[in-house]
Amino acid sequence: MGNVFTRYIDRLRGSGDAAITLPPMDGALRPNNRIEEAELLVSTEAPDNLVLHDGKVLFSSGSSLRCLTADGQVEELDATDSTIEFLTSHPSGALAIGLGAGRIEIRGGPHDGKRLSALGQTPIVAPSAAVFVDADTLLICLASRQHAMGEWKRDLMTFGATGSVMKIDLRTEEAICIAQNLAFPSGVALKPDGGILVSESWKHRVLSIAEDGKITPVLDELPGYPSRLVPGAGNDIWMCVFAPRTQLIEFVLRENEYRKRMIAEIDPEYWLAPSLHYPNSYLEPMQGGGLKQLGELKPWAPSRSIGLVVRLDGEGTPWESLHSRADGRRHGVTSCLPTDEGLVIASKGGDAIVRAIT
Q: Name one Pfam family in it (predicted).
């Protein structure tokens, strides 16, 4: 009863979950142009899932598995039957591939050729991220049980919270649920103390899950939607933020009648929802004089897309960030890879792979 009364008061006052105020991008998240000004390595369609495997930088583009060569060329390695949603590698030579068709494949290593269409009793609908604990054990984020990864906007707009984190023994295929009822978990990384970090996109936070199963938020109220978590030097973690939060989108999420009609009547590409790319169509919901004046982007114009990567320390505290701002083109950063030469960043919305000095 208390929760019902609290929600009523929140809606009445515009406070709590009913508030549309957003945390500012300040301090370590202060905007800059480091992604926009970074060195272009290659232009390629919708690059994602950067991973170092057998000394090579691999990435995906739709259903294609590709390699970025040392001379800046793209080599086609394989084509799958559906979109590649995640890649993760292990020193044993194993490469795990999550496919949008609802399947996980293992190539190379001690479990070469293994295919999984379910994790225990849990069907694979939206495989979003994974990491090897060892050569025989895989941690996997399943973002949703209702919507495929390509329907992520629908999952957000329908308040999806059916995601889970699973641990699978590749020898026996025994699966253990580490966490469930999460709002689109889309990034996972191992902690030195044996726990794991998971990004929960729709709740704009990063969770720490201890070995005993205790879940603790370590980073909350982010100004964007976090996705992949990638280990860096020492205990650092690189966190990709694929889109910004805006007051307009927060408002739409609270206007149920408008939101339901939008979902029913409009193509998802043109919803008032986060986007991976800069506006490029006259059908965009925000355009023209609402965004620009005399060809210049208004400083107060709401943007549905940005490029953002954040470096976290071992405690999950941000201390450095790289941006492609609202007037840039390298938006929708879903993946990155630290290397000796710098941070390689995949701008899925900007069709580019770049390298920034950190």
A: Str_synth
